[in-house]
Amino acid sequence: MSALDGLEVRRTTTAQQLADGLSERIMAGAFGPGDRLRESAIAAELGVARNTIREAVRILELTGLVRYEVNRGAVVIAPTPENVEALYTARERLETAAAARTPSPAQLDAITRAFDDLVDAAQTGDLPAIVDRDLAFHQAIVAVLDSTRLDDFFAAMTKELRFYLTVLTKSEAPDEVVADHRRILDAFLAGDRDRAVAEIRAHIDTSVQQLKQVLAERR
Length: 219
Prior knowledge:
One of its GO terms (molecular function) is DNA binding. By secondary structure, the protein is mostly helical. Helices cover 70% and strands 4% of the residues. Strands 1-2 form a two-stranded antiparallel sheet.
């Protein structure tokens, strides 16, 4: 089975649309860290001009999902421990700041509904759905900060986070993912801000250590 199965390209497809499709494949793990994006092979398989493929790949390079390497061409990024640390530090500061506040009833309901959606996804075992619901849960937490700018900032981070979460979720059982998030939700429901902060910090710190271990094993 090809990593490109199911990716339909119409004659009117733009480089951006193609980049979005390839991005989804990368996020879903169809292309792993270090894999090459062979422009000629992709062009032939999808029936798209090679120049369009090249432009799409350059768009992906700007998003940080791929980079060009000498004698190899476009390669899916292999995340470094430093990249993981920097991204997750920013994430932790946002989410712990949110957890230190008291959510409104509507915000608490949004967090609870996001958790319920995560549980539903975990029961299906659908990896992309689990990652989507995981990110939605944390987006709901960030919303407690009552800042559309910070909401947008976190949403922008999710492109990279989705990539890392896909790598991480492959090594975790769905029930473990649910249990981690249930502890966070329980702290919010109990109105225990200190515990909510501690649970989020522990969750993110554990994720960082697991990601570093996965990356080390791939070297």
